[in-house]
Amino acid sequence: MSRHRADSDDEAPPPPPTADTGPLFLGQDNWPPARPSPSASAGQDPLFASNGDHDRSQSAFDDHVTHKTEPAPVSFADRFNIQPPIAYPQVGQSRFDQGPLVEPELAEPPDQTSLAEGQIVHHPTAPDHDLQDAHDEEADVEEAHLEEPADDLGLLGGAPVAEAGHRRAGRPRPPGRSGRRPLGILVSLGVIAALVAGIFFGGRAIVGLFSTEPTADYSGQGSGTVEIEVPEGASTARIAEVLVESDVVASTQAFLDAASGNADVMTIQPGLYAMRSQMSGEAAVALILDPTARLLDRVTIPEGYTVARTIESLAEQTEIPLADFQAVVDAPEQLGLPPWSNGQLEGFLYPATYDVTPDSTAGEILGAMVAEFNEVAVETGLEANAAAVGLTPYEVLVVSSMVQSEVTVERERSLVARVIYNRLDQNIALGIDATLAYELGINGGELTTEALTTDSPYNTRTRVGLPPTPISNPGQPSVVGALNPAPGDFLYYVLQNIEGEHLFTASYDEFLAAKAQCEAAGLGCG
């Protein structure tokens, strides 16, 4: 359905298009020609052919003509159906918004010099593609009557054709200046170089992945003895490198392939290992996981050992001179003792089993024992829970050492701790002979009547309170017993049998009776 105005409408016709209402195309000096009158014959101008299509064209044309009776010059816009620019929305405004629109700035018509040189000039503002229906119909009429108008009129001649992608008019490119900048050329060369490098190195990697060349590997169990050292924190790949460096395996890949899928490889510990020369990857994995391959000494220190007895045992088990251990004991500051240790080493050499390598030193071994004690102290809450029993952490350690020396039955540790705390609370001498034996450097069974009268802070028969230091290196159960004493009013305990069980009582008379029975049984209760 046509949207052209009817002749009977009262609304005034729109103004005619002018030469500056749209893009202009280059013409000649005598352009535009005078517009023929509507009565001109079809032979005078193909636009006014007197066939049946003329009526529709003429109607569309008349809608834009203000003076119907007078001939008017034909403008570029009329001749080539160049539409006027529409108003464009402002920045951030939709074309469908109802707000005011900003009219675009129109380009000036080309001068005659440009027209004569045959240049094609484009309007800097691209027209909207939503054309009015009236203009669409007029364009249909124009196209029906015109075929290659530029050629018919001889306007364009050999001028270049404007194609999509050409720069817009207004800022023509300076003569002799190419479209590529030197920086752009350098960037392009860099990209090409990167692509070439990626293809080269990536191709080599891909070829390596799919290479069918067998991995270098020895065969068999190897020969001789090769000592290798696994560094602290070494990964499986690093262990493989160490083995290759010592010619234990032929290649890292041989070891890694054999270790693949074997979870036990993650348990390999740092240290020295006795391997063999030129082993297959599988044989090397099997041997390094064998505990016998690790070159170390395993030493065990029982609970209740004193510092003196501990270093003697270490010297015997490791073949490290006793003098080396004694030198460390005399200057224990570098062993990592806790701040509340009062500079004393007794009680802090935690009793346990330790793996010692052939190149371990006395300081390293004793340092490892102190480190183990610090871990146990954290696990038991020694520092945090000491105040609950009314003592300092160091005093709790002293009590723990006495508990360790007095009992061997696990369930009795908290009972002995209760006896100690009750006696301290009532200002009664502890009467634990093990404290004096510690100072004298003898076993409790070796104490004589004369020795029991020795005036010493470690003689808990004659002195009230705790001895000045721990008397042994207690294990974790004794520390736990000292921190968690059993309930009760016990003040005495007496050995009952050879299994090490004791009778606990608050009655002095019951204590004397139990002591007589112990002496009669020859259990050493004299």
- The largest sheet has its strands arranged as 1-2-3
**Rg from C-alpha positions?**
54 Å
Question: What is the helical fraction, as a range of percent?
Answer: 25-40%
| Overall morphology | elongated
Count, helices: 18
List the helices and strands in order. HHHHHHEHHEHEEHHEHHHHHHEEH
Question: How big a fraction of the residues is strand?
Answer: 5-15%
Question: Any overview of this molecule?
Answer:
The chain has 526 residues and is mostly helical. 36% of the residues lie in helices and 6% in strands. The chain is built from 18 helices and 7 strands. The chain has helices spanning 53-62, 76-79, 112-116, 133-145, 149-153, 182-209, 236-245, 252-259, 281-288, 307-318, 322-330, 362-380, 382-385, 393-406, 413-425, 433-440, 476-483, 508-520, and strands at 223-230, 271-277, 294-295, 297-300, 353-356, 492-495, 502-505. It has a 3-stranded antiparallel sheet with strand order 1-2-3, covered by helices on one side. Strands 4-5 form a two-stranded antiparallel ribbon. β6 (492-495) and β7 form a beta hairpin. α8 (252-259) packs across α9 (281-288), α14 (393-406) packs across α15 and α14 (393-406) crosses α17 (476-483). It is elongated. Mean pLDDT is 76; it is low at 1-13, 16-69, 91-99, 101-107, 113-135 and 141-180.
